[in-house]
Structures are given as structure tokens and as C-alpha cells.
Amino acid sequence: MSDRPELIIRNTTVVDGSGARPFVADVSVSDDRIVGVGTQGDSAGVQIDGAGLVLSPGFIDVHTHDDLAVLIEPTHRCKTLQGVTTVVVGNCGTGPLTDRALLGFGNEVAASWSNHAGYFELLDREPASCNVGVLAGHGTIRTEVMGRHENRAASSAELDQMAEHVSEALRSGALGMSSGLAYEPGTYAPEEELADLASVVAEAGGVYTSHIRNEGAGLEAAVAEAIRVGERSGVAVQLSHHKAAGRDNWGRVVQTLAMVDEARARGVDVALDQYPYTAGSTSLEQLIRQGALGGDSVSGTRPFGDLNGDQVLIGSAPDKPEIEGRRLSDLAAELGLDLRAAAERIVVDGGNGTFAVFEIMDEGDVRTVMTHPLTLIGSDGIPAGGKPHPRLWGTFPRVLGRYVRDAGVLELGEAVHRMTGAPAKRFGITDRGRIEVGAFADMVLFDPDTITDVGTYEDPARPPVGIHGVWVNGRRIVTGQNHTGDRPGRALRR
Ligand SMILES: [Zn+2]
User: Fold this and answer.
1) 111: domain CATH number?
2) Distance in Å, CA 213 to ligand 1 centroid
3) Is this structure's pTM higher than 0.90?
């Protein structure tokens, strides 16, 4: 078949996803696979001049909350326009066990399903433009078995039921399991429960991703717990969106990265990912319940620390869009309420899916984490409407523009590796993340001199610049800043 390629990108600079140095070549595609890398002869197929541009594997977004978004708006422009060809859904403990489980992460979806297999079948029937890998969500599963507010250990019967849901996910093709230990109900789960369920994941060779219990004052203890879960269960542990949250804690990523290195030296398989911004985002309700705006914390651990009203922007408020992009301090003054009371009012008035964006990280820490060799890139974007955190639209071009080209924090080949070949390996995604003969033709063609994110906190939903083309399974989904409408994505089964 290699003598009849349907697509040839000629004279392009190939950054192949392995971390190797860039090289110039022609890359040819037949059906859904790459069939030639090197000088290619004449062809009747589509020819694209790639001179001066970089062709890399499509980006793999390892940390997303796109479970519903890929069903509701399957072209998934916020990700595909930035070169993302695979999203991993089901993070922070919230996974697609049922349609009910996902409410609050964007709009409701018309379809319904009642197990992970059902979610996979839906993706098969109504494919997105990008591929979708799935994690089971520990929090979703605990809610299904025990309810969301049970602050106690599971009984052995409940633990068995949770293990069966994890097992069903893995049999259906899930890549692993996530936890969200700063949130209900993950915050109520003792370490033993996590280790027991992680053993089920380990047996299947899956990955365990964790939004750890505390990213602020309790950061090291929370990292230590995640490492112990890996040690006890043998699972590969992925620390999600790694950071030190809150000014008092800035700099402590130096310690946590040393903990990661020390654990690996002992044979514990632990790694991490991050998004390239100094602001975080979560639901406003979570900030209230966790005591970040004053008052008590439901878990007693205050995982987001203390935020002041100037740090917090209302990102999305579906029922009250006029407050999107405004500061909580200003809204509280207008309402004549203290921060917590104002936020409580806004959660009610803003409706289901009211999200906040808040400044909590140090730029130096972002760079320190990025330079660690085990750090992958995951957007953690929240596909809500309004003014979502700009990471939703800009994460990957921002790494390549701001951090690779402008600041020199990473070499281009290394940065691409952490977005492609490395995450494919880490999450067990086969035949993707590389430009090589035989790999699936998930590819992005971009201009390394101009690629950058352009969204801001005030105007976040903007396609990046510098992307020339994006292909998924050999079919073109993006030309410049325009989506072709094609939906060649697949549900990726382990
Ligand atoms: Zn999270």
C-alpha cells in the first residue's frame, strides 16, 4: 500500500515524538496509517508543501474533563484547533460510568448509558473528531456505590462493588482509574481503599491518575500518599496537574519532585503532568465547600488554601452570563456580602456549571515542574461555556510558543515528546504519538516560529495561531483555524 499514498506532506521538518532531533523528510499516509517517512516519489494523492513547518504527532491531552463535551459538540474545536488528536477523559475522580455522573461538567447530553461499556459504544456510534481514551473515576464509582457524602470507610461489600465497577471499566477498554481526593467523595476515601482499587488497575496494566488530597499546605503529605498507593498496589501513578498552590507554599515543588525521583529510585512507577498557567480553575461550589473563601471545609483539610476575592474570577455562570469574567471581590461588594456568602449566592444564581478561575501558582514553579523529565502536558480544561480558563483552548500552543520558543524552558523535540510519544507510552495508547511507518496518522503541521496561544482570562475561547493542519486517523480535521467538520476519531480501548 505504501506505493499508493493518499496524502504526502513534503519537505517538512519532522519532530517524530520520540524526543529525537528534528529531520527533514516527506511523510506519506495511506488510509489511517503513516506508510512512508523519507523521500517519496510521485503520487496522485493530495500533496502538501511542508517546507518551513514542523510535522509532529497529534497532541495527546492526558488530563481532560471532556467526557460530555466530545458527545455534545463532537468537533471539539477547543482542543482540535490546537492540534490535539487524542483526549483522555475521566480525570479527577469524575468518570463516565453513567450519564448522571457527569452533570455539572458542561451541559446535559441527550444520550444515556449505565456502564463504561455503554459510554464506549456511544463514542463508537457518534465519534468525535479526536480519539478518546477513558479513565474510570474513583469518585463517580464511590458515589454510585455509597453516595457522595458518606464520610466513612467502605464496607468490604461496598469495596467489592467498587472493584467490580473498576474492573468493568478496564474490561471495556479503560486506560486506568483517576481519583479526586480534594473533592467529595474522594476526600472521604482512606488510602487503603485507593490502594485496593489501584491493585485492580495494576493487574490490568493500567495507570492511576490522582488529583491529590492537598496541593497547598499539605502538599508533601498528599504526594507521599499517592506514592504509597503506587507502592502498595504496584500501579503506575500519575500526579495530575502538579503544582504548589498558594503563595505560602510556592517553591515546594522542589521537594515534591525530589520525592518523585526518590520513589522511582526505589522502583515505584510515579510520574506527573501539568498545565502551563499560574491560575487554576474548579467549580465555585467546591471552593466554598472546601473553605477557600472563609468558613469551614467539608473535608477539614482546606485543599485550596485561602483565596482572597481579587484572586477569583467567575469563569462560567450559565444562568447569569453578565457576571462571567468579573472578580468575586467586586461582586461581593455590590451584593454587600462577605466572600463566602457572595459566592453562595452566585452558585445559586449562576446555575449548574458555575466555575471559578483563580490565581494560585508561581511562574517559577510552573517552569521547575516543566523541566522535570517525567512531566507530561495535560490541559485540565473545563469545557464550560462563558469564559473558561484559557487552558481549554491554548495549552499546547502555549507550551510550544511561550515556553519552548520564547523562554527556552524546553527544546522543541523534548516538548513534543512530552505531548505525544511519552503520554502514549504512559497511558498505554498503542501505535500513536509517533511519526513513523505503521503508526496511526494522527498528525499536526505547525509553524514553530509563530505558534502560540492567544486566549486571555478576559477572552479565553480563541483558537491559537500557527497551526496549519491537523489529521486524525489519516483524515484532515483542521485547516488553519477552521474545522473541516470531519469526525474520524475513535474510542481507544486498552
Ligand atoms: Zn483535578
Assistant:
1) 3.20.20.140
2) 10
3) yes
